[in-house]
Design a protein that fits this description.
The two termini are about 20 Å apart. By secondary structure, the protein is an alpha+beta fold. The chain is built from eight helices and 15 strands. Strands 7, 8, 9, 10, 11, 12, 13, 14 and 15 form a nine-stranded mixed β-sheet that branches. The radius of gyration is 19 Å and the shape is globular. Helix 6 (about 210-220) packs across helix 8. It has helices at about 25-30, 45-60, 70-80, 125-130, 150-165, 210-220, 230-235, 265-285, and strands at about 5, 10-15, 30-40, 40-45, 85-95, 110-120, 130-135, 170, 180, 185-190, 195, 225, 240-245, 250-255, 260. The protein binds N-(5'-phosphopyridoxyl)-D-alanine. N-(5'-phosphopyridoxyl)-D-alanine binds near residues 180, 183, 184, 207 and 210.
Length: about 280
């Protein structure tokens, strides 16, 4: 965990990094966040994360307390001050602290906090073995394209995965279609070799890793189908994988206890992980 966190302009030891109990992020989940991976002490795919943060803020009509360029400097400072070679940087902006009232407060400065975490990303044992996922109903609100800190449905989904001995939960809409993972984008690869993932819409978070992985897949002539897929189709897939900032590309070897293929990470997931890693390193900041 971070030794040094950022809170509203100051870099402080974690124990001293505090916000008000009236902060609207705490009381209403009235805020947004971002997570970017760090490899070799550098930020991965960060332009996309910053662009998404700006978009999320705009959707909430929340103004960043500092310009986006300065936010990148804060991310870099958190990496440096915490000596993070590999891990992630977390940023959160909320509508600030004000007397509790649902509508927007006037003249209140938004809260900006950040911290960093060390984590093995490259040498993840899950990349070698693959992970298991469990499906759960998608209990979230209708604007999942906003990276809101209202994550209770995802907390419950991930806990269901943990209790089922799985690493991730795939959330399923009322029509039986997979939306996405609790903190990752969901992909299957059909037996015919097409990479299938749900198109971006208000139903899912537009993953930054998703975007880069799809671009790489296209560049390398792989077949892509951006469409929703059902749980039944996923059970029958040749392989499956997830993408997220902190996991890059992780192969999935079982869904709801049903083994995919021969139970080992599939060739598409392995290849895309390796392509993404090369891309990430080449474009790191
Ligand atoms: N989660 N879908 C959801 C619901 C997510 O929370 C995330 C990321 C993604 C993948 O997005 P990206 O590739 O931009 O990381 C998809 C982050 C990592 C988290 O909450 O920790």
């Amino acid at each position: 965990m971070s030794d040094i966190a950022y809170v509203n302009g100051a870099y402080l030891p974690l124990a001293d990094a505090q916000i008000s109990i009236l902060d609207r992020g705490f009381l209403f989940a009235d805020g947004v966040y971002e997570v970017a991976a760090v490899i070799d002490g550098r930020l991965i795919d960060n332009d996309a994360h910053i662009a998404r943060l700006e978009r999320s803020l705009g959707e909430l009509r929340l103004e960043s307390p500092v310009p986006m360029a300065e936010i990148v400097e804060i991310e870099k400072a958190l990496v440096a001050r915490n000596g993070v070679a590999e891990g992630m940087v977390y940023l959160q902006v909320t509508r600030g602290a004000a007397e509790r009232d649902f509508s927007f407060p006037k003249g209140v400065k938004p809260t900006l906090i950040g911290f960093a975490q060390k984590k093995n990303i490259l040498a993840s044992p899950y990349a070698e073995k693959g992970i298991k996922v469990v499906t759960v109903p998608d209990l979230r609100w209708a604007r999942r394209d906003i990276k809101s800190v209202a994550l209770l449905a995802q907390v419950l989904a991930k806990q269901a995965a943990t209790e089922a001995g799985c690493h991730e939960a795939w959330m399923v809409d009322a029509g039986g279609f997979v939306t996405e993972g609790s903190s990752s984008t969901a992909f299957i690869v059909t037996r015919a070799g097409a990479i299938v993932t749900r198109p971006n819409s208000e139903a899912i978070l537009p993953g930054c890793t998703r975007r880069s992985v799809l671009a790489l897949a296209q560049e390398h002539g792989l077949k892509i189908e951006e469409r929703a897929f059902t749980v039944a189709e996923a059970y029958d897939a040749g392989e499956a994988f997830l993408t997220s900032a902190s996991n890059l590309v992780l192969p999935i070897v079982a869904i709801d206890g049903r083994q995919l293929g021969d139970g080992a990470p599939g060739p598409h997931a392995r290849r895309l992980r390796s392509l993404y890693l090369d891309f990430a390193r080449a474009t790191a900041l």
